[in-house]
Amino acid sequence: MTEVFRFGLVPIACRARNEDRSQVALSLNNNEVNIYGRAASEWKLQETLQGHDLRVTGIDWAPSTNRIVTCGAVSLLCIYLTFSCG
């Protein structure tokens, strides 16, 4: 069964999920990465990652290390170490 969730009116530029798919990292076409966690039947914002001056163009979430790697419009690469959400 398909589920539909809304994260606002702004287009999602890129996204990645953690290993068990209980969290998702989204960039809403800006310079931030929002981490959402699944709470019952909805997604709740848990943390906002910052570090880019311009728009985030790519996100990857490493399953074994729980690190998030992002790249930006000016080829800036950010690595966010393990963080605690929830």
TrEMBL record:
Signal peptide: none annotated. Keywords: Cytoplasm, Cytoskeleton, Repeat, WD repeat. GO terms for molecular function: actin filament binding. PANTHER family: ACTIN-RELATED PROTEIN 2/3 COMPLEX SUBUNIT 1, ACTIN-RELATED PROTEIN 2_3 COMPLEX SUBUNIT. One of its GO terms (biological process) is Arp2/3 complex-mediated actin nucleation. This is Actin-related protein 2/3 complex subunit 1A-like 22. One of its GO terms (cellular component) is cytoplasm. It is found in: Cytoplasm. It comes from the Eukaryota. It comes from Homarus americanus (American lobster).
